[in-house]
Amino acid sequence: MRLLPLLLLPLHLASAGTFFWATDMHVDIWGELGNPSDEICAWTPSAQLQSAVAAMSSIDAAPDFILCSGDIVHFPNRNSSDLSKDVVLQTHTAFTDYIRASFPSTPLYSALGNHDLHPSNNWPTNVEDSSWLYSHLSEIWSPFLPASSLDQLSKTGYYAVDASPTLRIITLNTNYWTVYNTGLPWDTGVAETQFAWLESELQRAAADDKRVYINGHHPAVGVHVEGGVEVGGLWPLYQQRFAMLHQQFAASIAASFFGHDHVDETRLVRSCTFESGNPDPDSSSVNSCSGDASGVVYVGQALTNCHTPAFRAWEYDVASAALTDYTQYAMKTDEATGELSWPEQYTWSAAYDAMADLSPASWQAEIERMQSNWTAFEAFTERRGVGCDKGDEKCRTFTLCNYLFGSGHAELLDCLYSGL
Predict the structure, then answer these.
(1) CA–CA dist 124, 185 (Å, integer)
(2) What are the C-alpha distances in Å from 38 to residues 29, 42, 46, 310, 386?
(3) What is the DSSP letter of 302?
(4) Is the peptide bond before 76 cis (omega within 30 degrees of 0)?
(5) Which of 182, 206, 232, 272 is most buried per CB count within 10 Å?
(6) Which of 280, 221, 220, 212 is closest to 249 using CA atoms?
(7) For the domain bounded by 16-359, which CATH number is listed?
(8) Residues of the chain above pLDDT 70, percent
(9) How far is CA 214 from each of CA 242, 250, 281, 406, 416, rounded to the nearest angstrom?
(10) What is d(CA 305, CA 151) in angstroms, rounded to the nearest whole number?
(11) Residue ranges of the Calcineurin-like phosphoesterase domain (predicted)?
């Protein structure tokens, strides 16, 4: 796949666009490359991150933008006594500087993960308690965002931005919807406010005739499956509400990008049916969310040392914002010299040759094909980084049901019951 520096062309003359996508960097600014204790899961020495960014630049020096799905910050146990707000800010600044040094003219659009604030995970439901972080990010990301986006970011940690005349990127702060944020059961106001904001942004995009990429950290549908089930994502109610909003604005939403689970996955947002015939978030009128796929959720392989660190280069149609292809690059370490390289891991158009395109319908057909085709399923899980033992039908059933029906837990359980 050859990536063209489209920023050198007038936007209206460019039919193909490119962007990079990375997630879960977990940067350890004190970590040493080559030190085994600093190169374990969820820790990334600065030199490893810089190597990845340099590799991106060598692949495409002028992408349209860089998308990041959160967890920029992380600290190993040896630094626990050094944790402070200042160090969190220092890491965010260092990460931003790495990007700007290699891509001085390329905007960075980043979401926030559960590790990007101190203390981690339990993000305050009073957004003013996080203003020390949000105000800092609005300063260091000011080269990438207009004033209106910076104002929203400085208050809430989420924002929307026009990446082109035809594309709007809506960046969520999914920390306000997560199961392990223990403040949410007592104060759901921050969650409700973000849903209202998301709906208003989707309405605005539809009125402006723009397509939308949704970017966030915790996947909006499904659960994490790896040696068991980890329920560390969104509250089931919020997953269903996301699916309902997605269905309402499916014509505007081109794709969604999330991280957190550290594996390469594709999940579907399914259409719902309602007793009243229309979505009603204030009632229990949902009959089922098992209709045709209304959208695709991409979950990114981590750039940190969990499985194989990787990043992705996307191609898309500028006019429609439809995704057209991608190539994933994975880290390789020379055993003799310790030198890092980032060769191609796979390209979608070659790896998924049974698919006509990257549409929701095509992904639904591909995942359904894997239900009866072990060869296709094993190829998928090899790319994912975590698979099922040959013949383990329970593992395959759970994995594929999660991809097919992650937007509704009742539908997921029905799929499991039918397939086991």
Answers:
(1) 12
(2) 10, 10, 10, 18, 22
(3) P
(4) no
(5) 272
(6) 212
(7) 3.60.21.10
(8) 91
(9) 11, 12, 20, 17, 28
(10) 34
(11) 22-263
Q: How many C-beta atoms lie closer than 10 Å to residue 311's C-beta?
A: 27
Termini Cα distance of the chain: 40
Q: Are 289 and 407 in contact (CB under 8 A)?
A: yes
Look up residue 130 and give its two tokens.
Answer: 């996080």
Tell me, what DSSP letter sits at residue 372?
A: T
Token pair belonging to 383: 């790319």
pLDDT level of residue 3 (50, 70, 90 thresholds): very low
What one-letter code names the amino acid at 41? Answer: C
Residue positions counted in the chain = 420
What residue spans define the domains of the chain? 16-359
Distance (Å, whole) CA 169 – CA 195: 16
- What's the rounded Cα separation, in Å, for the pair 15 and 318? 5
Q: Residue 282: what pLDDT?
A: 58
Dihedral angle at the C-alpha atoms of 330, 20, 233, 349, nearest 10 degrees?
A: -70
Interatomic CA distance for residues 29 and 234, integer angstroms: 29
**Beta carbons within 10 angstroms of residue 364's beta carbon:** 17
How much is the pTM?
A: 0.93
Q: For 196-218, what is each residue's pLDDT tens digit?
A: 999 999 999 999 999 999 999 99
